[in-house]
Write a structure and sequence with these properties.
By secondary structure, the protein is an alpha+beta fold. It folds into 3 domains: about 110 residues, DNA Polymerase III, Chain A, domain 2; about 120 residues, DNA Polymerase III, Chain A, domain 2 (Roll); about 110 residues, DNA Polymerase III, Chain A, domain 2 (Roll). It is built from 6 helices and 26 strands. A 12-stranded antiparallel sheet has the order 15-11-12-13-26-25-24-19-22-21-20-23. Helix 3 crosses helix 4. The N and C termini lie far apart (about 75 Å).
């Protein structure tokens, strides 16, 4: 292998690719980058077997070849070369990195042990605008469970609903749902069967700084999904588990409905969290005439309450939630007005975006002893 590239180009790509490098695997290959120079392109890959990332970097290739090198080492070395031309070539089992003032060499390892990320992408299911991913997908992904022992809940469901697709995540205590109707450029007739994508893959995808649309490729026979955007691909395995029947827990009606300013409510929640976080984390919402009173209390710390102006329809009501769930919800919303619906203190509360029927977030209440 013999190539020349710009340091700024490879340093722009390597940090994101390194997200897929295993942090403490006993398999040496999972601690490495696979570097492949072929067909006038330079490809760098990493995987921890849960997620894989492939990045394509502009380069002048004089001689094709491939090598695996310690990811952390080359990341640090190239990071000390902020700009300018870098020559990279291999001689036997050694990789040389040279600039006019710098000469470095690394021992390579066999590429045979590096896992194949995929052989075929599969069918392109849809294309999604990156702006939609950054703004809308974050409203769903955060609700997925972080507990790997419950595989279905650690993923995000994409399935058919009516004439479009729906994206759903739940950890058993809260649920986020977003419909994709009119938001995705479909390439096929849609999903034949729902798929569950690990939430980690989607989180990485949202952090990817590339322009343009994201192509979604699914290969059921390989149980694999590939997200392709610009010069980067994020690869992962679909979760094989039964997703909860979420439709059964979404309330069909409500007895109380309140519309309020998101920022005002978020500030009230942050204020009350100062008291709630010390013990149970419970924050109460009391819906009254033209207002919602947000409150929390901890005997050893104190008590706090904040009134939030609201347009209220229906009955006065009270309900208590895990305050952390409320804060996480509002930190993932950007819209000006939010709608809250409930039927009683022991039934799930539902949060929606005013004027947007494509999203809802459900939180199970906490029973509070008076």
């Amino acid at each position: 292998m013999k190539i020349t590239l710009l340091a700024e180009n490879i340093n722009k790509k390597l940090p994101f690719i390194s997200h897929a490098v295993s942090s403490r695997s006993q398999l040496t290959s999972l601690l490495n980058f696979l570097i492949v120079a072929k067909e006038k392109e330079l490809y760098i890959s990493a995987t921890d077997l849960e997620i894989g990332i492939i990045g394509k970097i502009p380069a002048s290739i004089e001689e094709e070849g491939e090598a695996t090198v310690p990811a952390r080492t080359i990341l640090e070395l190239l990071g000390n070369i902020p700009s300018g031309k870098v020559d990279i070539h291999t001689e036997g089992e050694t990789l040389f990195i040279e600039t006019p003032k710098t000469k470095m060499q690394l021992q390579t390892q066999t590429t045979k042990d590096f896992p194949t990320l995929y052989e075929k992408k599969g069918a392109e299911l849809m294309q999604i605008e990156k702006e939609w991913l950054e703004k809308e997908l974050k409203k769903v992904v955060f609700a997925a469970s972080q507990d790997a022992s419950r595989p279905a809940l650690s993923g995000v469901l994409i399935g058919k609903e009516g004439t479009g697709n729906v994206v759903v995540a739940t950890d058993g205590y809260r649920l986020s749902l977003k419909t994709l109707a009119g938001k995705a450029k479909k390439k096929t007739d849609g999903l034949e069967e729902p798929i569950i994508i690990p939430s980690r893959i989607l989180r990485e995808l949202m952090s990817l700084k590339e322009e343009g649309v994201v192509g979604v490729f699914v290969s059921p026979e390989n149980n694999q999904v590939v997200f392709s955007q610009g010069d980067t691909e994020v690869v992962g395995r679909l979760i094989e588990a039964k997703f909860p029947d979420y439709g059964k827990i979404i309330p069909a009606d409500f007895s109380t409905r309140a519309t309020f300013a998101r920022v005002e409510m978020q500030t009230a929640l942050k204020t009350c969290w100062v008291f709630a976080r010390e013990t149970s984390g419970i924050i109460k919402l009391a819906v009254g005439k033209n207002k919602i009173t947000v409150s929390s209390s901890t005997p050893s710390v104190g008590h706090g309450s904040v009134e939030v102006e609201a347009k209220v329809e229906g009955e006065e009501n009270e309900i208590a939630f895990n305050g952390r769930y409320l804060l996480e919800l509002f930190s993932n919303l950007d819209e000006e007005e939010v709608v809250f619906e409930m039927t009683g203190p022991l039934n799930a509360g539902v949060f929606k975006i005013a004027g947007d029927n494509s999203f809802l977030h459900l939180i199970m209440p906490i029973r509070v002893q008076e």
